Amino acid sequence: MSSFSNRVTRLFNINYPIIQAGMVWTSGWKLASAVSNAGALGLIGSGSMYPDVLRTHIQKCRAATTGTFGVNIPLLYPGVEKHMQIVIEEKVPVVFTSAGNPATWTGILKDKGITVVHVVSSSKFAVKAQSAGCDAVVAEGFEAGGHNGREETASMVLIPAVCNAVTIPVIAAGGIATGRQMLAAMVLGAEAVQVGSRFVASEEASSHINFKNAVVHATEGDTMLSLKKVVPVRLLKNRFFEEIQNAESEGAGADTLRKILGKGRAKKGMFEGNLEEGELEIGQVSALISNILPAAGIVKDIYREFDVAIANPVKKI
Disulfide: which of 34, 187, 207, 232 matches 295 by Cβ 3.0-4.6 Å? Predict the structure, then answer.
């Protein structure tokens, strides 16, 4: 495949404007290195890792790829200071931050020569990320899986709004798993896409095979945003989801919902494969995912479809 050049590919020194999202319990070193080896940007998802585990994943990823890779760090989790110290010590080239104030860490990371990208759910927060010195932003629409923006703005609206608000490169996320969706995002002004759910259903993802199969068999309407009184998160519907929905319909407050959520719920679902009692974080685009592939094959398929769609955007591929 021929490579693609724009501000994002040059920023990360990658061949294709495709970023694999750093997702909890899914994006370990095997997935990140496979994506980077395929010419895209692989990210380690640090949100589910203890500091020493994160260090191990970084070191194994570096040994497994000569390409650029990065780490996603959700700022809402406790112990973020230790994670930041590790990425600095390990000289990780790229850090994506999310779910917090980018002004807290961006300057510190950039002083160490690290490229910083922040995930936003509104143009207001995109402007704040740009002011904080971020090199790019991810505009993540309402369709996305996992923790989601409270604004509930869909990608078709969010992407152009963010592109109009900032001058730094915009990476589109939320509801993107195919090359035609990638082209649509670029027509709206984005210069790359961040893909999460499609890489959950990859051979290298550390998510449990039960979860991968559930994603492959999902159809439209099988996911819904939940836990809005705590931290909004998009989930596959299951017994745990129904318990939360029933509690919310009866007027349960945040404390009650946190008690139902408990600890380790996402690990139970996505990593251990308990499809009824676990928290199954995935995006709406799971309805378009029908198979489990090697990560390199996913990168190839997305870019091939994108390349064909440029010439003929209405042709089915």
Answer: 34
Percentage helix, strand, coil for the chain under 3-state DSSP, each rounded to 5: 45, 15, 40
Give the angle subtended at the CA of 282 by the CAs of 277 and 284, to the nearest 5°.
125
Helices (H) and strands (E) in the chain, counts: 14, 11
Using CA atoms, how far apart are residues 274 and 268, in angstroms rounded to an integer? Answer: 6
**151 φ/ψ sector (left φ>0, alpha ψ -120 to 50, else beta):** alpha
**Residues paired with residue 19 on neighbouring β-strands, in sequence order:** 41, 194
The amino acid present at 96, given as its one-letter code, is: F
- What is the per-residue pLDDT across 204-224, written as a single tens digit (0 to 9) for each? 999 999 999 999 999 999 999
pTM for the model stands at 0.95
pLDDT tens-digit map of 14-29: 999 999 999 999 999 9
Q: Please report, for the chain, the start and end positions of each structural domain, with discontinuous segments joined by +.
A: 7-206+287-311, 220-285
Instruction: Report the SS3 class of residue 71.
Output: strand
> Distance between CA 6 and CA 56 in Å, rounded?
32
CATH topology of domain 7-206+287-311: TIM Barrel (3.20.20)
Residue labelled with tokens 């930041």: 84
How far apart are alpha carbons 25 and 279 in whole angstroms? 11
